[in-house]
Amino acid sequence: MEADVVIVGGGPAGLACALRLSQLIDGHNNSNPSAPLSKENIYVLEKAREIGQHCLSGALLDPRSMRELLPGFEKEAPLDAEVTAEAVYFLTEKSRFKLPIVPPPLRDHGNYVISLNRFAKWLGAKVEEAGITVFTGFAGAELLFEDDSVVGVRTDDKGVDKAGQPKGNFEPGYDLHAKITILAEGPRGSLTKQLISRFQLDRDRNPQTYGVGIKELWELPPGRIAPGQVIYTMGWPLTSKEYGGAWIYGSRDNVISLGFVTGLDYPDPRLDPQHVLQNFKQHPFMRRLLEGGRMIRYGAKSLPYGGWWSIPPVSGNGWMIIGDSAGFLNSQRLKGIHLAIKSGMLAAETAFEALRAGDFSAAKLGLYARDVDASWIRQELWPVRNFHQGFEHGFWSGILHAGLQQLTGGRGLHARYASHSGHRRLLRLAALDGCADPRNDGWAKGDGKLTFDKLTDLYHSGTRHEEDQPAHLVIHDTAICSNRCTQEYGNPCQYFCPASVYEMVDSPGAPGVKQIHLNPSNCVHCKTCDIMDPYEIITWVPPEGGGGPNYDGM
Amino acid sequence: MKILVCMKQVPQKDAPLKLNENGSWIREDVSYEVNEPDAYALEEALRQKEKHGGEVVAITAGPARASQVLREALAKGADRAIHLEDPAFVTLDALNTARAVAAAVKGESFDLVFTGLQSDDYGFAQTGVILAELLGWPHATIIMHIEKNDAGIRVKRELEAGFFQFVQMPLPAVLTIQSGINKLRYATLIGIKQAKNKPLRKVTMAEVQAALGPNLQVLEKLYIPQKTKKTEKLEGPASEVAKKIVEKLRNQARVL
What we know:
The structure holds two protein chains of two kinds.
Chain A: E1 2-8, H1 12-31, E2 42-46, E3 60-61, H2 64-69, E4 79-82, E5 85-91, E6 96-98, E7 112-114, H3 116-129, E8 133-136, E9 140-146, E10 149-155, E11 158-160, E12 166-171, E13 175-183, H4 190-198, E14 210-219, E15 229-235, E16 244-250, E17 255-263, H5 273-280, H6 284-290, E18 294-304, E19 315-316, E20 319-321, H7 337-357, H8 362-374, H9 376-381, H10 395-407, H11 454-459, E21 473-475, H12 478-488, H13 493-496, E22 502-506, E23 514-518, H14 528-532, E24 538-540
Parallel strand pairs in A: 1-2, 1-13, 2-8, 5-15, 13-20
Antiparallel strand pairs in A: 3-7, 4-7, 5-6, 9-10, 10-13, 11-12, 14-17, 14-18, 15-16, 16-17, 19-20, 21-24, 22-23
Chain B: E1 2-6, E2 9-11, E3 32-34, H1 36-52, E4 55-62, H2 67-76, E5 80-85, H3 94-104, E6 112-116, H4 127-135, E7 139-149, E8 152-158, E9 164-169, E10 173-177, H5 189-195, E11 200-203, H6 205-208, H7 238-251
Parallel strand pairs in B: 1-4, 1-6, 4-5, 5-11, 6-10, 7-10
Antiparallel strand pairs in B: 2-3, 7-8, 8-9
Helix pairs in contact in B: 2-5, 3-4
């Protein structure tokens, strides 16, 4: 199938890109009725069964880019509340200390509490109304290359059984030959990963670093938290060796969004981010807040922290990268949706120029990279270019670096702070001195009211996959799991996966030996395994389109 | 063969349901999907058409969101679709729903009408049967196989305990289809694209109102069952405890 533009991923970046492109084409066609451009062959691929089902974020929306995309959008978009009050707390196990002032990056007045799921659904409807085809239930499985160009995308095969054999209803993936392929897959996109590796786009860049956000939606008795009230916490249950913190956003109808982001660069391989969230809720402050409430939804998603120095080249022959796939996220403000939208709009503007000129070369699409540099994306990300790296040696030195950077326009002590891939910071069990960290005592048990084990949480993510299909978590050498990893790291996949996809079970052939067992149907598509596995032997590939979590209302 | 497939949009099976304010139905903020047996009914219609030629028409009743099931049907190969579009269609009982469907297709001459065996939400399993009555056609339920022959069709019905019944029936007829009768196909990219240009006729409530009567069956109140749990500790020597357990399982839990 021939296409002009294929956008892979129907999140905020991809949808904003599609909508902006449609606006530009409409404008062009109105003023040039004799030489119209067609929207017929512009497609968005979305692996979820419906738009928005795989969209997960806190979420606070900085409205800046939306105001550019759709002036007056506030009147019709599903915004749950305008932020009216913020507070930042530092937690110890039993106490909390309120920061006397809210640090400027965390001042959120004028932002909106949203459900990214509902927001994406709304934006997706706009895209479809504009006449652009969104193929839901279709994942981008492979990039199509010709020499040094990307010439399109192959979608996923459907109807393949566990053993990889075609079933009666087998449908092979399509080759969508596209003049421009825009990657909007979210963090750690699987096609983006192929692209980066093929063209070595990470050369001269800092490695991308990530966090994983574990989120629960709670319904509380009335009056606990006002709509638009925002609370951030730092500290407990993480120690100064780990990066992360919690958010609590008051939404409407007595619903709150509650979550914990754990930096995927922690040293102790037994750390379990889902367990961290469960511990966090046992803090006296949280216990009081949640008492009598009910957890209604669960989800998890990684986010790119690396910042400016980690962003790969964002365009080349026939391709552009937008949103979280490129790493457009402000880790200091903990916000990326507005940057995703803006990068999508800029890519659309370049795609439009390229379509008009019939030129899809790196030179032409390089306009996008230049536009990013000239836009407020760079203005916002440049001053925080060294922010996250400052925390590589722990919380307190991070605070110090952040302060220095604040005073020096983002520079701090070095022009460019280096960073390291998070999985390289995992310590071997032997290096932990045998000191048992009481926080890392295996999977959370859960009391069923305040805290939950992983499977209970997972149930609330609405995750569903076709069972009879090949595992989409590809472990390239499972012998490493049983031999080296058990010895060296104690199989951290069991802990970092927030959906119990990875289990070590008794090996039927060899008594006393554990082997890896996968539950791919549990996967919530957070990509943590692809990021955090210490041997880099896990590759996350998209499962059959339509499978995955259902983040309704998240 | 010209086949009408009645399809319903229902809340996703594992959707976390919340009651609406007056407890008459659920809140709308959940994901919806095609009622499972209706998807099999559509697939069967497409297969019959592929074998014998003809036309497949999909129909649904419900608010604007319900057009999604029609788009899916068109993408998979239905030729055209009819949408009885109004949120109020959701509140009709089986009789009125059947009346509305019958009114919407008046003047068309179908050979077969397929419905799913029952809906995943209300679960009445009546609409198809009543529709047959309104049309004055024979019907058969829980269909597992359909074979066209000179005298009409021969169908296989699923009975209880692994039994099947084979019925020869004339056309036109209404069949309610059981899940698993076939293997569902996937919508293709080409199909999804072509679906945009296939005819989708909208029918308003006003157009079929004259055919409807008062609901004979009304959902008065929905409630979430209270979960109760009782733990009893049986004490004493093992042999006595075992006896007590057996007695409880037999007389209280009634599982033995």
